[in-house]
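> agent: user asked for a holo structure of the chain below bound to NAP. Plan: (1) validate sequence alphabet, (2) canonicalize SMILES, (3) run complex prediction with ligand conditioning, (4) return tokens. Step 1... ok. Step 2... ok. Step 3 dispatched.
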Amino acid sequence: MSPSPPLSGRTAIVTGASSGIGRAIALELGRAGAHVFLSGRSREPMDATAKQIEQAGGRAGVVVADLRDEGQVQDLVAEAVRETGRLDVMVNNAGLSHPAGIVDGSPGEWREMLELNVLSLLVGCQAAVRAMRACGAEGHIVNVSSIAAQRRDSGVYGATKHAVNCISATLRTELEEDSIRVVNVMPGAIATNFARNFDPEFVKGFAKMSGVGEDVEVTRGEKLPDDVIEALQPKMKQLLGNAEDVAKAVLYAVTQPIEVNVAEIVVRPPKQLNL
Ligand SMILES: NC(=O)c1ccc[n+]([C@@H]2O[C@H](COP(=O)([O-])OP(=O)(O)OC[C@H]3O[C@@H](n4cnc5c(N)ncnc54)[C@H](OP(=O)(O)O)[C@@H]3O)[C@@H](O)[C@H]2O)c1
């Protein structure tokens, strides 16, 4: 008889699961046997990932939400608990960057980054701790930060990720006596839709350098087709990591015994771009 997968019987939530790193983490946790709840704003890609998980014999649910709204974060956690009676892994991954500087940036863009990257993550941490305590879970809270938190001059986006590092470290201390570990993940540049708010010429330059195509349509704020990202990453692997490698690191951290805290993880390609 083959052993049951490591997360069998566990419930996991992944925010920002409609694209990039979050989608890869949802798939990895689903393959490892967790009942995964995927959340983000775009239903279609999450339905497709949930189907992939289910076709491989796993269980998945989709919760469409704008996670800048604290009530929608709390409802997401409540929904997972209502359906499965528990919560074991909370991955606070949803995040975005508007790269403009302080002199040229706009308060609306700063607010969007602060609300999603910091406030929604804080609410997700709090709701997850309450749900994990209520079901007596040996739980893991995974916060997706960035290597931008390792540089002092990484802009407003970087400031939100410095805040994530501080929140993870503080929560880790608050939970020392609980059976809940906190994992802070700092990815380097990873091939995803992260650059969707960057200058389209910068993104086109990458596509051109990789030889993927000069005719790739890039519109600020819009996602690139999956096949473009999938084709681009292997050609640019010195500069752009693969989301699956971040997901594998997360799976490693959340499958350790509860007295082992994989506290911080950096996953990056060989050459480092400043994010
Ligand atoms: N890729 C990198 O180079 C890199 C490096 C370091 C850190 N990170 C961090 O990794 C995390 C994931 O980013 P990614 O690279 O995978 O980028 P991505 O492909 O753009 O994915 C971002 C995810 O966040 C979701 N999201 C955005 N706004 C939301 C909102 N208001 N409510 C709910 N969901 C929302 C998106 O969903 P919709 O598209 O459905 O809105 C999407 O699923 C972020 O925290 C980012 O800061 C990325």
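> agent: step 4 complete. Summary for user: Residues 16-22, 40-42, 65-68, 93-96, 116, 144, 146, 187, 189-190, 192-194, 196, 275 surround NAP (CB under 6 Å). Residues 193-239 form one domain.
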